[in-house]
Amino acid sequence: MPAKDFDNPADWDISLMIVGDSISHGTSGDWTWRYRFWQHMDASGVKVDLVGPKKDLADARSKRLGTPQQGYADTAFDRDHAAQWGQPYMVAKDLVREWVTDHQPDFVLVLLGINDLAWHPTTPDEFEANLREFIANARAGNRWVHLILGTILDTHRANVEHDFDKRVQQCNNRIRAVAAELRTHVSPIEVADTAVEFFADRHTYDGVHPNPNGEMRVAAAFADVLAYRFGIGRSYPRPYPDVPDVELAAVKAQRLAAISAEHLGAGLDPVPDPVTAGSGAVAGPTGGARSAESPVPAAQPPARGRR
Description:
- The chain is an alpha/beta fold.
- The chain has 13 helices and six strands.
């Protein structure tokens, strides 16, 4: 009996595209939050088709940017995505129209922003301008597209640099404000407050990238919005289980350095140095308060069914 083709389902209820950076792309040995999200939706009885131009990981073991068939802790999920190490809004805004045009997702789930702030001198005003252009270009690819915008996650750097943490919180507030302003009945925009339950000292392996427990919290934020705001699937179950990593965090952090040179050769930002970007435990989250999104009328789900 041939193996199940998770990447090309015969029928589905909704199609979704995940647009992100390394936090969504992942590296060898990861399950990824994409896996946690797909598994949850499947368990909720929702047939999901994840779509996008790639299905790889950044494979630190072979020093390659991606291997479609290898590297995942578990390949039993739909791996299609539009995430890339180092990708900021300032780059993705110029690519998203083509991705949406080509794949026509019902939903675009977005988790971007940390690279705009960590590697580029992006001000909150510039961040907002890039976000607005991203939304406009996504809608140019599909005027009915539904968008769910994740907030920028906690990092070790935000815990030790007040000015950086302030910019993160300012940009997260811009995400919430822009979503509230630009949402329409035809093309709803909601916010998945991914930052609320995610703390760098407990939910990353290097101060930036999610460990398995962090993956679940990111997946939960998006799943909750689909359940509560669109009536699709169930909310993510709590309390969360405590899941060990596939490999020691220290080993994984060392392996990230192996892909830096090729990453730069591809014209992308370098892989963060675990020391400067936030290795090691910190005493606890010290970032500013994170306000929840203001209540708004529930948006309607897109029409479901096989395309």
